[in-house]
Amino acid sequence: MGLLVVGSVAIDSVETPFGKVKDALGGSATYISIAASYFTVPIRLVGVVGGDFPKEHVRLLEDRQIDLDGLQVVKDGKTFRWGGRYHYDLNVRDTLYTDLNVFEKFNPVIPEGFKKSAYVCLGNIDPVLQLQVLESLNKPRLVVGDTMNYWIESKPRELAKTLKAMDMLVLNESEARLLTNEPNLIKAAKKIIAMGPKIIIIKKGEHGALLVTLETIFSAPAYPLENIYDPTGAGDTFAGGLIGWLARTDDLSGENLKRAVIYGSTLASFCVEKFSVDGLKDLTYLQIQDRYRSFMQLSRFDER
Ligand code: AMP
Q1: Is any ligand 1 atom within 6 A of the Cβ of residue 98?
Q2: Whose CA is nearest to atom 14 of ligand 1?
Q3: At 264, phi and psi to the nearest 5?
Q4: 12 Cα nearest atom in ligand 1
Q5: How many CA atoms lie within 13 A of 162 on its CB side?
Q6: What is the tens place of the pLDDT at every residue in 78-102?
Q7: In the chain, where are the structural domains located?
Q8: Does the pLDDT at position 206 exceed 90?
Q9: Is residue 240 within 6 Å of ligand 1 at its C-beta?
Q10: At what angle do helices 185-195 and 173-180 cross, to 10 degrees?
Q11: How many CA atoms lie within 13 A of 16 on its CB side?
Q12: Taking every pair of C-alpha atoms in the chain, what is the biggest distance, in angstroms?
């Protein structure tokens, strides 16, 4: 069946009060793919990098069994570079630079062999490109998409069209409010359901995530960690864990969506424990299961 992932592949430099990393592997498609790779194969990544993209980054993705046939390499171009600095409150970050480089002209060409993927995760790219990707595919079973403030404000009409073609939208709380002009998150989610996607996941950072469908509201906590080093990519990792689980089980029932949200939160909790993808690259299935189970203990209590 397979999972198709489309998005950015980047070289990140990040500073937090607890350390820093330079020229590390980043990008939305990277985090989504690595997280999902713990649950399903094949993962098919579509993105673009320049001739400067380090071989060790390619090796890391290949070691996770990610199919890179759709990773375009523009030999005389430079890879997308992003720099960010987090405050003591890790919810606050300044973007130091966004050098789009080859990503500016990214035209996601889906290799023939990828078009039958049953599961699709569209990282946060131009909604016009997201729709173009979807139109080239052969009836996927589930399309999950991400977006951001920038597209909500600059391309609202194009985004509205793309939303109609998505089954699930994953976005953070400020994006949900901006998209709907609605401060209450449940009402906002219902408004988004009316725009197209029938499953809405609102990420609330260290406060967890909310799953809203017409039948269900499910609130998942974030894992209470004592040591968080780098929140970069947590949202993408969450989406990757979530869709990876759905692709593995091929079960879109309400109960399994809840499990998927907890698996997404589980992977995100590993992501933030180290810089870049270091917390994600060498996990074992047992570690993931252990943390998944401790999630269940987090909000379980006796009725009496
Ligand atoms: P997040 O922490 O979820 O915002 O994701 C951070 C990742 O997104 C980093 O690895 C960046 O390389 C990547 N990124 C930052 N800005 C953009 C952008 N405008 N488009 C696509 N990816 C981006």
Answers
A1: yes
A2: 27
A3: -60, -45
A4: 12
A5: 26
A6: 999 999 999 999 989 999 999 999 9
A7: 3-297
A8: no
A9: no
A10: 60
A11: 19
A12: 67
Any atom of ligand 1 within 6 Å of the Cβ of 168: no
Name the residue with the closest Cα to ligand 1, atom 22: 8
Point out the ligand 1 atom lying closest to the alpha carbon of residue 235: 3
Q: Give the Å distance between the CA of 161 and the centre of ligand 1.
A: 23
Q: Tokens 């799953």: give the residue.
A: 211
State the CATH class of domain 3-297. alpha beta
DSSP string of the chain? Answer: --EEEES--EEEEEEETTEEEEEEEE-HHHHHHHHHTTT-S-EEEEEEEETTS-HHHHHHHHHTTEEEEEEEEETTS--EEEEEEE-SSTT-EEEEEEE-GGGGG---PPPGGGTT-SEEEE-S--HHHHHHHHHTSS--SEEEEE--HHHHHH-HHHHHHHHTT-SEEEEEHHHHHHHHT-SSHHHHHHHHHHHS-SEEEEE-GGG-EEEE-SS-EEEEPPP--S-----TTHHHHHHHHHHHHHHHHT--SHHHHHHHHHHHHHHHHHHTTSSTTTTTTT--HHHHHHHHHHHHHHT-----
- The CB of 27 under 6 Å from ligand 1? The reply is yes
Of 28, 232, 236, the residue with max ligand 1 atoms within 8 A of its CB, to mutate for a pocket test, comes to 28
pLDDT of 299 reads: 83
Give the nearest ligand 1 atom to 98 CA.
16
Report pLDDT digits (tens) over 9-58: 999 999 999 999 999 999 999 999 999 999 999 999 999 999 999 999 99
Ligand 1 centre distance from Cα of residue 27 (Å): 5
Ligand 1, residues 30, 46, 232, 274: which to mutate, most atoms within 8 A of Cβ? 232
Closest atom of ligand 1 relative to the 150 alpha carbon:
19
